[in-house]
Automatic annotation (TrEMBL):
One GO MF term attached to the UniProt entry: 6-phosphofructokinase activity
UniProt keyword annotations, A-Z: Allosteric enzyme, Kinase, Magnesium, Metal-binding, Transferase
Protein name: Phosphofructokinase domain-containing protein
Entry-linked InterPro entries: ATP_PFK (IPR022953), PFKA (IPR050929), Phosphofructokinase_dom (IPR000023), PKF_sf (IPR035966)
Annotated source species: Aegilops tauschii subsp. strangulata
Length: 211
């Protein structure tokens, strides 16, 4: 028997009854972080009730952030779709003087999608990922690089994983930690934050040049 569960919501009191009716001996639960947490809860309930049912969790996350496997389901598709967004951002950026295309991609704690999409594209000038901290101002900062790149090419494309720069955002926008339905910390919007910061930096440069 094979049972594929993408979203697991089971009431513990019905668990043993459910398994006895369909006579399951193995349950394969396919999904991401939240689904695997649900699989663990099912496993604990099965063990508590002494049922002879095996539970196997099969990773399925487009983030590809699982250490024991090379590639998870959906990752290649996510990278392909990310490239479409990058292509569109490049067209928009290159159509305006000093245009900047900013593409925010999935990647809470890992930047695999952002990095692979960047490597597959010829149009990305800067890729920001959670694994590599960055800073905005000063020598070697993001603002300095943006200024130099715009002078060289008149436009640029920045790709950022959603989990990048969270420490910087938290310093400038103090907010209480909040959790989503799966118990993960809600991320602050690095895309909107970077857009605001970059616009402010470019405006300061323009004002300085005018004087």
């Amino acid at each position: 028997q094979f049972l594929e569960v993408h979203v697991v919501v089971m009431i513990p009191i019905r668990l043993s009854t459910t398994f006895k009716i369909v006579e399951l001996i193995r349950v394969y639960i396919i999904g991401g972080d939240g689904t695997q947490k649900g699989a663990y809860e099912i496993f604990k309930e099965i063990r508590r009730r002494g049922l002879k049912v095996a539970v196997a969790g099969i990773p399925k996350t487009i983030d590809n952030d699982i250490a024991v496997i090379d590639k998870s389901f959906g990752f290649d598709t996510a990278v392909e779709e990310a490239q479409r967004a990058i292509d569109a951002a490049h067209v928009e950026a290159s159509s305006a003087e000093n245009g900047i295309g900013l593409v925010k991609l999935m990647g809470r704690y890992s930047g695999f999608i952002a990095m692979y999409a960047t490597l597959a594209s010829r149009d990305v000038d800067c890729c920001l990922i959670p694994e590599s901290p960055f800073y905005l101002e000063g020598e070697g900062g993001l603002f300095e690089y943006i200024e130099r790149r715009l002078k060289e090419n008149n436009h640029m494309v920045i790709v950022v994983a959603e989990g990048a720069g969270q420490d910087l955002i938290a310093k400038s926008i103090p907010v209480a930690d909040q959790l989503d339905a799966s118990g993960n910390k809600l991320l602050l919007d690095v895309g909107l934050w970077l857009t605001h910061k970059i616009k402010g930096s470019l405006q300061e440069q323009k004002d300085g040049d005018d004087h």
